[in-house]
Amino acid sequence: MVCRRTRLEPASTLGDPRARQRHRRLTVAWSALRVAHLVPFAYVYARDSVVGLTLLGTFFNKPTLLMMIVLTVVVVRRGARPRLDATGAMP
Fold first, then answer.
1. CB neighbourhood size of 7 (10 A)
2. What letter does residue 85 receive in the DSSP assignment?
3. For residues 77 and 34, which has the higher predicted lDDT (pLDDT)?
4. pTM reported for the whole predicted model
């Protein structure tokens, strides 16, 4: 839904099982990223370390978040391209 609203993906992929599978994989990847962030942040928060939270946010959270956004855009756009059959024609 978000990909269609931001025009990353055409509305024609609405019933496509490949698009559904692609979005499931992206959802799992985003969930894993959030869990990977939660563990170190919870530990540093429990230690009451403002400097540690700042460093984690700057050097771990922001770069991985940007990388995941770029990966999401690339995967969605690549999957939304029309596929060619064996003869080189569009199905």
1. 8
2. -
3. 34
4. 0.73
